[in-house]
Structure formats: C-alpha cells, structure tokens
Amino acid sequence: MKGKTHAGIGASAFLLICDKVPGKFNAIGLIMVMFASLIPDIDHPKSIINKYILPFKNKKTKTVIYSCLGLTVLWLDYLYVGEPALKALGITFIFISLSSHRNGLTHSLVGMIIFTLIAGYIGKVYHVNNVVYYFMIGYGMHLICDMCTKMGVPLFYPFIKKKYKFPLTYKVSSKSGNLLEDFLMIIGIVYTIYRLPGIL
User: Fold this and answer.
1) 117-129 residues labelled b (16+ CB within 10 A) or e (exposed)
2) For residue range 124-141, what is the model confidence (pLDDT) as tens digits?
3) How many CB atoms lie under 10 A from the CB of residue 71?
4) pTM of model > 0.85
5) Please, are residues 164 and 152 in contact by the beta-carbon 8 Å criterion?
6) Nearest partner of 21 among 13, 115, 145, 195, judged by Cα
7) What's the rounded Cα separation, in Å, for the pair 20 and 35?
8) Phi and psi at residue 17, to the nearest 5°
9) How many CA atoms lie within 13 A of 191 on its CB side?
C-alpha cells in the first residue's frame, strides 16, 4: 500500500475513534498518527520517510545509514544517557538496516511495541501526552492495511516468520490495486469533511 494511503487511512481511523482516546481530538495527535502510519515502511529505501533521510534510494545506502545511526545511538547512550529506550532505538535502527521490506521487524507486533515504547519515552521527555495511543493507532492501522495485500505481513516475527493476510487481498501497484487505494482515499476525504465539524 502506498504511503499516502497509509497516512490517509490512519488519519481517518483517528477521526473515527478520537472521542474514545485520552486527549480526544487534537492536531498533534492527528500528525503523530499519520507519522506512525508511515513508520513500518522505513525498511523500504524509497518510502516517504526515507525520501528525507537517505541520500540515495537503494538497499546498500539504507543498510549503511541505519547501521551508522544505530551504532551512534548505542554509543552515545553508553557514554552519556543510559536509557533503555535509547538502547531499543539503536538496536531497532540496526534491525531496519538489515531488514528487507515486509520481511522483518517493522511489519510485526514486536516492531509496533518497540516503536510505540520509544515514542512514548520521547513523548514523556518532551511532555507530549498520549503518544502511545497515537502510535498504536497509526502503526496498527498500517499492519491491518498491509494484511489486505497479497504480500501479507510477518505479524509474529521474529518468533514466526510466516506472513499473515486476510482472505480477500489485492496486488499492490496493479491497476485494480491503485484504483482501490484511490477509492479509499476519496472515502477518507469525504469522511474527514463530514467528521471534522462535529469534533472541532
């Protein structure tokens, strides 16, 4: 599924359930849900996030950059900070450097838990409330959406490497797949227009 579709579906899901989330609707929450919706694709060199991180959009560059980021975070944490969340972030960067798209940590429940805990720690440090809820909504919706595709996701990685998907799936980047994603985006926009006046 395309990054913009993930972000759009994440935003629509947040608008749908924001009344039941601590903090209700707010702009920071919406932005964080959309950002979390993009995080799982960080293992793809051409993802929206890597568009701004990687100087060259290929697997070798991704491996080098994220390995260096991971080792740097671990080294700085060892020297100055000593926080478990930073250790987890450094190790996660190294996992990202070694993962191929949808075959590893980022598209699993373990990945969702790790990224959510790291985001929650950062939110606590900077006094941003309810970050854990925002990340779980965005990240969780990404995994659910990718289970609608023929590739599926390794939901229980690294314990089980099998990929899981729903009975009805579509092929990403196919003509019918693109039409379906465009349709979902239109539905999301219509729902947003309908929903926003009631929660602002």
Assistant:
1) bbbbbebeeeebe
2) 888 888 999 999 999 999
3) 14
4) yes
5) yes
6) 13
7) 20
8) -115, 5
9) 16
